[in-house]
């Protein structure tokens, strides 16, 4: 039967996979989004929420790895954590590219619609169209600034994630070095034990020979004193 910790690790892994798939689906929605700007901003808000949840679950998985008793389990979970972090960084890159492509497409479409409508209107309507164009351009600029700030936040989070990956890699390397040192120490201890066992056997043999020589000497002296004529 699986332990409670194993169940929690499995659930955490399943949630990470779920958030990853949801993020990929939202990125595809952004890539195919025909507009308007409000729809794009709503999709970006959903993606940001999913990334925050995914990041928390990856941190939970990393903490579970530190709590493992067996070194093999800890290393396996750490490797899975690093893999999920790399996947998250890949998703962030795809999100930025899809966002920019969709933004440019919507901007181009809106400008084309404004230009076409302007050609069929009167002078008075053209004036209104220009005002709408200015307002739309202002909204587009504001939206671009909002997207830029959001992307700046994601870049900072990506830098933090890369830093965590580097720390995890160093931890794994240090653990491997400790294993190598422990293996060498075990081999050395085994050799010393074998050496001491052989020495103990030799010492016992020498004591036995000395005792035999002592007894032989005692018997010889007794023989000379008690039976000098033999």
UniProtKB/TrEMBL annotation:
Annotated GO MF terms? protein heterodimerization activity; SNAP receptor activity
Q: Which residues form a coiled coil?
A: 44-78
Occurrences of domain Sec20 C-terminal (ranges): 136-226
Q: Where in the cell is it found?
A: Endoplasmic reticulum membrane
Family annotation (InterPro entries)? Sec20, Sec20_C
Annotated membrane-spanning segments are 205-222
Q: Name one GO cellular component term.
A: endoplasmic reticulum membrane
Could you mention a single GO BP entry for this protein? Answer: retrograde vesicle-mediated transport, Golgi to endoplasmic reticulum
Q: Which domain of life is it from?
A: Eukaryota
Its principal location?
endoplasmic reticulum
Q: Does the keyword Protein transport apply?
A: no
Name the membrane topology term. Answer: Single-pass type IV membrane protein
Arranged from A to Z, the UniProt key words for this protein are: Coiled coil, Endoplasmic reticulum, ER-Golgi transport, Membrane, Transmembrane, Transmembrane helix, Transport
User: Family per UniProt?
Assistant: Belongs to the SEC20 family.
Q: What is this protein called?
A: Vesicle transport protein SEC20-like
**Which gene produces this protein?**
BNIP1
């Amino acid at each position: 039967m699986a332990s409670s910790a194993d169940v929690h690790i499995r659930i955490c892994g399943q949630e990470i996979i779920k958030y990853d798939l949801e993020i990929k689906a939202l990125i595809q929605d952004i890539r195919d989004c025909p507009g308007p700007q409000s729809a794009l901003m709503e999709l970006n808000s959903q993606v940001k929420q999913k990334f925050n949840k995914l990041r928390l679950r990856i941190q939970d998985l990393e903490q579970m790895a530190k709590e493992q008793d067996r070194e093999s389990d800890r290393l396996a979970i750490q490797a899975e954590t690093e893999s999920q972090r790399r996947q998250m960084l890949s998703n962030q890159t795809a999100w930025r590219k899809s966002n920019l492509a969709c933004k440019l497409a919507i901007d181009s479409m809106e400008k084309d619609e404004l230009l076409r409508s302007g050609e069929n209107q009167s002078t008075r309507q053209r004036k209104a169209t220009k005002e709408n164009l200015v307002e739309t351009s202002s909204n587009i600029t504001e939206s671009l600034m909002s997207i830029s700030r959001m992307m700046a936040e994601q870049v900072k989070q990506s830098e933090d994630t890369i830093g965590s990956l580097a720390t995890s890699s160093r931890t794994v390397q240090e653990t491997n070095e400790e294993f190598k040192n422990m293996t060498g120490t075990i081999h050395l201890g085994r050799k010393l034990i074998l050496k001491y066992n052989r020495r103990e056997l030799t010492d016992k043999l020498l004591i036995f020979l000395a005792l035999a020589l002592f007894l032989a000497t005692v018997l010889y002296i007794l023989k000379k004193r008690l039976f000098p004529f033999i």
